[in-house]
Each structure stands twice: as structure tokens, then as C-alpha cells.
Amino acid sequence: MNHLRKNKNQRSSVIHNDSILAAYRFWSPSYNIHFGYWQWGINPFDREAMLEALNEEVLKSLQLLPSARARLLDAGCGTGATLRYLSAHLPHVELHGIGLAPGLIEMGRQLNGQNGVAKRIQLRCGDFQRLPFPRNFFDAIVAIESVCYATGKDKADLAREFSRVLTGGGTLVVVDVFMKSGKMPPRPFRWILRKVTESWAIGQVGVLPQFIKQLELHGLEVHAVRNLSMNSIPSALHIPLVVARLLASAILRSEENRKGKLQYAKALFSTLLTGILTPYLAYTLLVAEKSSGQGDK
Fold first, then answer.
1. pLDDT value, residue 294
2. Domain for residue 50, yes or no?
3. How many domains does the chain have?
4. How far apart are CA 140 and CA 157, in angstroms?
5. Could you tell me the pLDDT band of residue 7, with boundaries at 50, 70 and 90?
6. What are 55-78's pLDDT values in tens digits?
7. Residue 144 domain-assigned?
């Protein structure tokens, strides 16, 4: 998860500062910094397999052929783990990633080099609400657990920017946590929601109907909305074990980035509270396509 503008961006950088980067490997050796996707046939004890399965769901939602020649942006790319996955399946697609945290981008470049894809994937620091790309530049955009960091409940600025850089007929795939409606939950649930968003430095969780409305206002037709909450639960059940490992490492190896491990453990533990918010929150995969007639505007 990574984005927001200055002053709000400063809060976002708290969870992505340099002291916490190494701690991410406790969740995923490949630095897949997101929930996993479970279905029958996937080992629920294999966390990395579930994380890669979510990347596969994104790939399938893009509906790009292996022979496709296109440009794709990962908005809020973290270390570029999803881009590295896509590079293996879309060998002719030009891959770009943008993220706010310099440490994550630098680590991503190193990982790209180690995996032999440094020339295939271009990572840069920047705000995905002010993209440094021309109009109609991308054929596809993916955003995994990053839209929540955009400003506003309707994410209007982000919807406008996605539409600007996406070509007519281009595809947008979003995976993120959204409020199911604009109705505020009862007071105890609001307190839990505030604790979770504070732990992850999120300004406002998006409201799904409002976000969809903004996409449509900017020429993006939503084709699919899937609630992946149940599919994400098996990976979320790994959180207590990962938190325990982080705490043990912080205590036994206190000289090795103790602050970052404790900070990440706190954020991960707060994520368990989202289970209580299931009546109000949904882990959602959304697919939209920009109208062909919008491409030249």
C-alpha cells in the first residue's frame, strides 16, 4: 500500500519508511505486499502461493494475450512484485510502476535486477494522482491495495487521472478494501476502522458506489465487481504467525531493525480487526474499461 499527496503523503510514508522495508520479507520473500487469494486447489498453508494467486487474478482480469504489445502501469507498485509476475506472462508488454516511497522503489529496482527484468520494468517515484505521463499513454492500469491512499471517499482525483492516461479501450483493474456504502457504521465500528486506517496511514477508505460513479463520470465503464473477502481470509489467518515472528525477531535480534519490525507487526495486527468490519467493508476486485470514444480527449 503506498500513496497520498504532501501532508497526507507524509502520513503514508510512515508505513513505508526505510526502517520498515526489510520487515516486509516476513510477510513475503518476494515482497508481495498485499492479501492473498485462495480457492480450491491452493494450499492454504502456502502464503506465497496465495499472494501469487492474487497476481494471477489481476492478470486474468486484464485479458491481455501473451503476444500483446501494450503499455501497462502499476499505480502504487510497492517494490514491483506484481510487475515482476506480469513480466513472466506478458513478455511483450512495456511495464511501468510508480510509487511514493523511495525506499520501496529502490528495493524494487534491486529485485528487478536480481530477477533479470531490470530492462523490462521501469519504476519511478511519484504521486499517482499527478502522473508524469501524457494523455492516452497506457493500455492498462493495475492498482493493488493503493487506491485506499488516494484522497477523498470517492477517489475523484484518482479516477480523473486514471482516465487521462488510459487510452480508449484500455483496462483498469483495482484490488482494494472499500466501504460497501456511504453509510457510516455504528460508533464502535467507526473506532475500529479509525485504528486500522491510522495503523496503515490511510486517510479515507474509499466508498465503492462513489468510486464507481467517478469512474463512470470519467468515461470508464465498470464491467466486473467481485467481493474477494472470503478468498482473502486464509492469507489473513497467517497474520498472527507473522506477527509472532516479527516480535520474536525484534526481541532476539534487537540490533536488526527493531523499530521497523515492531511497526510492521502493529500494522499487520490491526488488519485482523477488519474481520469485525465485514458488514461494512469488502475486499474488492474491480474491472473497468475506458470507452473507445474517450481515447482522443
1. 62
2. yes
3. 1
4. 18
5. very low
6. 999 999 999 988 889 999 999 999
7. yes
> 3 in a domain, yes or no?
no
Say yes or no to pLDDT of 81 above 70. yes
Phi and psi at residue 96, to the nearest 5°: -130, 150
Cβ atoms < 10 Å from Cβ of 241: 11
Domain assignment of residue 50, given as a range: 8-292
Could you tell me if residue 200 is inside a domain?
Answer: yes
Q: 160-197: buried (b, 16+ CB within 10 Å) or exposed (e) per residue?
A: ebbbbbbbbebbbbbbbbbbbeeeebeeebeebbeebb
Q: Read off the CATH number of the domain in which 72 is found.
A: 3.40.50.150
Contact indicator for 179, 33 with CB cutoff of 8 Å: no
What pTM was computed for the model? 0.92
| 226-240 pLDDT tens trace | 999 999 999 999 999
DSSP calls for the chain: -----TTHHHHHHHTTSHHHHGGGGGT-TT---S-----TTS-TT-HHHHHHHHHHHHHHHHT--TT---EEEEET-TTSHHHHHHHHH-TTSEEEEEES-HHHHHHHHHHHHHTT-TTTEEEEE--TTS-SS-TT-EEEEEEES-GGGSSSSS-HHHHHHHHHHEEEEEEEEEEEEEESSSSPPPHHHHHHHHHHHHHTT-S-PEEHHHHHHHHHHTTEEEEEEEE-HHHHHHHHTTHHHHHHHHHHHHHHTTTTTHHHHHHHHHHHHHHGGGGGGTTTEEEEEEEEEE-GGGTT-
* Model confidence at 14: pLDDT above 70: no
Nearest to 238 by CA among 262, 259, 268: 268
